[in-house]
Design brief:
disordered N terminus; 31% helix; 27% strand; elongated; alpha+beta; seven-stranded antiparallel sheet; disordered C terminus
């Protein structure tokens, strides 16, 4: 058996100077282009990627005189430029540029505070930066994802992907419905090639090759004097899946932003929540969201459980952080119990309820000068650090009268620590997040809280602009640090405030409704699978030609062509050639002297060699 690999084929093939054809390297660089008229059909459509077009000149051509000529020339020019711009927009290069710009545009959305997420931080940034604040505002950097420039990039990328995928999909479907192209005239010019002579008839060799190729899951058919086969369609399928998945992700993200809703609610132990717009402390939604889209449900916070590391380098780190709830779906749903933990939300339909924060709500009782209770409630305070040092305000808006019988409002600035280090041991900050040694520091004000004006105000902050601070007979500010059960008496018979022993805890919940998130997740997984297929699967073609030589002996030629050069193609061709050779072995050379191998009747026949395959 005689065999030739790629190097030998290149040596034996005519040079460009001999027959005027390009060398094999040039042919491989331009797969899909009829470089020398031989690989045209065989090397075409290995990929459905569109061919880039060069920068054009004039599309209008020659202009005939007169208004009619000018109109015709203008129409051709506009049509030509429009088609060229569309081809550029739907090219893979532009799609990658737009994808990069989209990623680049998302950076300021992560680094700069966004008005849709935290309007207070945006205002604080503007107050602190007199130059950058107005500049960022003009550029839309405080609302990146709804800005004009980000939306333009988003829409252009969407159009580019669709314009690229649709024609490629139809072209690929046409390839699947068609047959592998016939063998080129000169198989020796292909990157992987082998040949041998056999006594089997050409028709018998083609039948053997067709059977072997189909067993190896090639799409194969007999075309004239050769068998044409193709494999690796999953590469282009993966490529199309990747781009379709990108479109699905873009649509899912856009859908989620338009119809999303997100709200926060702080709930003290024993209180409840109903999923209505008025129940939220803070609420924001997409442009197309309607209150009718809110999922009907309600829940009560029975208790919050938090335990913490007592020793070691992780002292104060939460070990248990969970909220026990009872909830019901709909207006008359059955009541159920559940436990919400960090990253383990309560899921009701398309709505998820996350546990996001925790703090303490000391219970206080305020009495007027006659001893009547005018306020009794648990007051949630906002934590300032990881040890839950907390600050807030106690506001008595109704029912209080001073010693002279005049109606007033009371306000108390509150500072709470769950674990107090003790007087004389530095500033009043908590040493541990658990209720080991709780202390509540209070100072009182009387007058007008400003709530009667109808203007919204922060419930956790006290505005003393229209209030006077309580002072004793010596003119000193009245303030006290109270342990549970202790009372601070107000001067001049103004009443008292008691820090009750019942200290409750509160939990903050974030209620989100993000439609399209499942589609986005499915698109992400599909994109990964499609990308893996397009990277690791090689699309290749194999031809087996069997013809009768001048001496009447059948000449078998096998060659392979892939979309890209790879060592796997010659190895695969060698394996295929070995399987065909088993049933159509090499014709022995009658003129050659007998050897020990020829004398051994049980010796295995040699295997045809191919580029990258070991010779046996």
């Amino acid at each position: 058996m005689s065999s030739t690999d790629t190097g030998k084929a290149a040596e034996s093939a005519p040079t460009p100077e001999d027959d005027g054809t390009p060398d094999p390297v040039s042919a491989k660089r331009h797969v899909g282009v009829a470089a020398d008229g031989e690989l045209g059909a065989a090397g075409s459509q290995l990929s459905t990627a569109p061919v880039d077009t060069a920068m054009p000149g004039s599309f209008g051509g020659a202009r005939t005189p007169g208004a009619a000529g000018w109109i015709a020339w203008t129409g051709r020019e506009v049509t030509g430029w429009t088609r060229w711009i569309w081809r550029q927009l739907t090219s893979m290069r532009v799609a990658l540029i737009l994808l990069f710009l989209l990623s680049l545009g998302a950076i300021p959305g992560s680094l700069i505070p966004q008005s849709g997420t935290d309007a207070a931080k945006v205002q604080a940034f503007k107050d602190a930066h007199s130059v950058l604040g107005p500049l960022y505002d003009r550029l839309g950097l405080f609302h990146v994802y709804s800005s004009v420039w980000f939306s333009a990039i988003y829409i252009l990328l969407f159009v580019s992907l669709i314009g690229c995928i649709v024609p490629r999909t139809w072209q690929f479907v046409g390839q699947l419905r068609g047959r592998p192209p016939g063998a080129p005239r000169r198989l020796t010019r292909l990157p992987a090639y082998t040949t041998w002579r056999t006594t089997a008839e050409p028709e018998q060799v083609r039948e053997i090759a067709l059977k072997v190729l189909k067993q190896k899951r090639f799409r194969a058919h007999v075309d004239k004097d050769a068998v044409a086969a193709e494999k690796g369609y999953l590469r282009e399928t993966g490529n199309l899946l990747f781009h379709i998945a990108l479109i699905v992700m873009l649509v899912a993200f856009a859908w989620g932003q338009l119809f999303k809703s997100e709200g926060d609610k702080l709930i003290v132990e024993g209180d409840g929540f109903s999923n209505t717009l008025l129940s939220y402390d803070d609420f924001k939604s997409g442009n197309l969201f309607s209150t009718d889209d809110l999922t009907p449900f309600s829940f009560d916070l029975k208790n919050f459980t938090g335990t913490y590391e007592r020793t070691g380098p992780n002292k104060g780190t939460p070990r248990t952080y969970q909220a026990a709830l009872t909830y019901s779906e709909g207006a008359y749903g059955k009541e159920r119990k559940t436990v919400v933990k960090v990253n383990e939300p309560l899921v009701i339909g398309d709505t998820k309820v996350y546990l996001t924060a925790h703090g303490y709500a000391p219970t206080v009782t305020v009495r007027d000068g006659r001893g009547d209770v005018v306020f009794h409630d648990a007051v949630p305070l906002l934590p300032l650090d990881s040890n839950v040092t907390s600050q807030g305000a106690v506001k008595v808006m109704d029912g209080y009268k001073n010693a002279q019988g005049k109606t007033e409002q009371l306000g108390f600035s509150a500072f709470f620590v769950p674990t107090f280090a003790g007087a004389g041991k530095g500033d009043m900050f908590s040493q541990f997040p658990a209720l080991d040694y709780p202390v509540l520091a209070l100072s009182g004000f009387h007058g007008s809280l400003g709530v009667d004006a109808g203007l919204p105000q922060n419930v956790y902050q006290l505005d003393p602009a229209h209030m006077k601070q309580f002072k004793d007979a010596k003119g000193k500010i009245v303030k006290a640090r109270l342990r549970p059960g202790e009372t601070m008496t107000l001067p001049d018979g103004a009443g008292s405030i008691t820090f009750d022993k019942d200290i409750k805890e509160w939990a903050n919940f974030q209620v989100t409704q993000q439609p399209g998130s499942d589609w986005a997740l499915a698109g992400a997984f599909t994109a990964i699978l499609g990308l893996a297929g397009s990277l690791f699967i090689q699309r290749r073609r194999v031809w087996v030609r069997a013809t009768t030589g001048d001496d009447g002996v059948t000449v078998v030629e096998m060659a392979g062509l892939g979309r890209s050069e790879s060592a796997k193609l010659p190895e695969e061709l060698g394996d295929l050639a070995a399987l065909v050779h088993e049933q159509a072995p090499t014709k022995p050379d009658e003129d050659a002297a007998p050897t020990d191998a020829d004398a051994d009747a049980d010796a295995e026949p040699p295997v045809p060699a191919a580029e990258g395959a070991e010779k046996q």
